[in-house]
Amino acid sequence: MDNPVNTPPKNDIQTTIDQLVERFAFFNDWKERYQYLIDLGKKLPEFDAAWQTEDNQIHGCQSQVWLKIDCEAGRYYLRAKSEASIVAGMIALLLWVYNGRTKEEILTTPLDFLGKIGLMQHLSPSRANGLYNMIKHLHSHLN
After folding, report:
1. Is 8 exposed, middle or buried (0-12, 13-18, 19+ CB in 10 A)?
2. Where do the domains of the chain lie, and which CATH numbers do they carry?
3. 58 vs 3: CA distance, rounded Å
4. Does the structure show a pLDDT above 70 at 1?
5. What percent of the chain has pLDDT over 70?
6. How many C-beta atoms surround the C-beta of residue 14 within 10 A?
7. CA distance 53 to 116
8. Of these four, 17, 53, 132, 133, which has the most CB atoms within 10 Å of its CB?
């Protein structure tokens, strides 16, 4: 999330993922990692109330989540919102990796980075399902 909204990323997607994994490895335990995740969620870009539409809403999440996807010059820019702090942090991770990427990058990048940072092992089943639905919504928008 170091990049401004609607600005192509500075690094290739694998370097971005490696940096994300490195940041999470800095923390000693999951209490610290959860706090970092919450802090990332607090830094999400503004989400206009007009974007809170049925088309942008992610269904299957325990909390309300909206994801707005725009395409400019072959790159996809994401904005998202959730009132739940952990969910907002998960959104921030997805934006960190996928924002400003091409369709091919988004669709071909494995989701193993979520396991590498240990997130999948520490999510409740309902939150894991919500994360899956966010990714599914993004992928379905691109196909």
Report:
1. middle
2. 13-142 (3.90.1010.10)
3. 24
4. no
5. 95
6. 11
7. 33
8. 17
Which H/E stretch holds residue 121?
helix 119-122
Length of the chain: 143
* 108 vs 61: which has the higher pLDDT: 108
What digits encode the pLDDT tens for the residues 64-112? 999 999 999 999 999 999 989 999 999 999 999 999 999 999 999 988 8
**Nearest alpha carbon to residue 69 among 87, 49, 55:** 55
Euclidean distance between CA atoms 66 and 96, whole angstroms = 16
- Distance between CA atoms of 53 and 47, rounded to whole angstroms? 12
What pLDDT, in 10s, does the model give residues 79-88? Answer: 999 989 999 9
Torsion on CA atoms 39, 41, 45, 48, rounded to nearest 10: -140
Please report the pLDDT score of residue 6 as a whole number.
60
Output the six-digit token pair for 70.
Answer: 């725009």
In the block, which residue shows the tokens 């940072």? 117
The catalytic site residues sit at 61
Q: Residue 14 is encoded by which pair of tokens?
A: 């694998």
